Amino acid sequence: MSSGIVLGFVIVALVVHRQERARTVRENNHPALLGFLTALGFLALALGVASVVRHRPLDAGAVTLVMASLVVGAGFGAARSRTVQVWRTPGGRTLCRDTPLTTILWFASVAGHFCIGTWIDRAAGAGSLGLSTLYLHLAVSLGVQGLLVRRRAASGPVRTRQLGGPASRSPRARAHAPG
């Protein structure tokens, strides 16, 4: 197993572990992690392309599959965003936390990327272009998830948790609930 694959698994494990705890929606914006993954992703992509073009020209099929991998990452990010719990505290802070389904979708996303990565490497015919796109896949996926969770929190009613009471759909619904 290459060190790049190990680093990819470590990053996914850290992201999943961090998101299992409640955090403010603002904390869900991972600018440092997204910047790191994006920079690492472009570096790895450049090395992956170099590993292919050293032996043969890069063809449109491999490039199309690389783009498809990023679209799949965005799709998984959108799907995971719908599984994240979002709620407001009585003090007005908006919090979020991943659910077990979110974690399952994280691992499905990585597994899907490895399948597409294998396909990319077969289409390229040489080198390791497929696995080199893992970090960009993670950056796109995490970025889309964060953007959509923030949009969900800002756009509509989210659950309001009360100490000692059930959650309601919105503060307005709670005000009109029978007492």
Structure, briefly:
By secondary structure, the chain is α+β, with helices and mostly antiparallel strands.
What does this molecule look like?
The protein is an alpha+beta fold. It has seven helices and five strands; from the N terminus they run αβααββαααββα. The chain has helices spanning 3-19, 31-53, 60-83, 100-124, 129-132, 134-155, 171-175, and strands at residues 23-24, 85-88, 94-97, 159-162, 165-168. It has a five-stranded mixed beta sheet with strand order 1-3-2-4-5. β2 (85-88) and β3 (94-97) form a beta hairpin. Mean pLDDT is 81; it is low at 162-179.
Features of the shown structure:
179 residues; alpha+beta; 7 helices; 5 strands; 67% helix
Task: Please write out the topology.
Blueprint: H1 3-19, E1 23-24, H2 31-53, H3 60-83, E2 85-88, E3 94-97, H4 100-124, H5 129-132, H6 134-155, E4 159-162, E5 165-168, H7 171-175
Parallel strand pairs: 2-4
Antiparallel strand pairs: 1-3, 2-3, 4-5
* Radius of gyration, taken over Cα atoms and rounded to an integer in Å: 20 Å
Q: What is the molecular shape?
A: elongated
How many separate helices?
Answer: 7
- Taking strands numbered 1, 2, ... along the chain, how are they ordered across the largest sheet? 1-3-2-4-5
Please trace the helix and strand order, writing H or E for each element: HEHHEEHHHEEH
User: Can you summarize the main beta sheet?
Assistant: 5 strands, mixed
Beta-strand segment tally? 5
Instruction: Give the helix level as a range of percent.
Output: 55-70%
What would the average pLDDT be, to the nearest integer?
81
Contiguous uncertain segments of 5+ residues:
162-179
Strand content: 5-15%
What structural class do you assign from the helix and strand content?
alpha+beta
